[in-house]
Design a protein that fits this description.
By secondary structure, the protein is α+β, with helices and mostly antiparallel strands. Helix content is 30%, strand content 14%. It is elongated.
């Protein structure tokens, strides 16, 4: 398996994201408030392998998880 080079986040562009620069790359989103949900959805739609973490109890995250729209996490 070929090793992928680390991304230079200073040069990452929306065109690069559309071209697949995030595809298959692991990313972590901290917090599932409104902006965390939006970011997780964006990254997942860009093909990244998204892991989310939020310190709140699971019963408080039901709506946030549902708003991910069934995207893989």
């Amino acid at each position: 398996m070929a090793t992928r080079q680390p991304l230079d986040l200073d040069t990452l562009t929306i065109d690069g994201i559309r071209a697949g620069d995030l595809a298959g790359r692991p990313v972590t989103v901290l917090g599932l408030a409104r902006s965390g949900v939006a970011l997780a959805r964006f990254l997942s739609d860009a093909g990244a392998r998204v892991t989310v973490y939020d310190g709140r109890p699971a019963d408080e995250l039901t709506d946030a998880i549902a708003s991910l729209g069934g995207r893989p996490s």
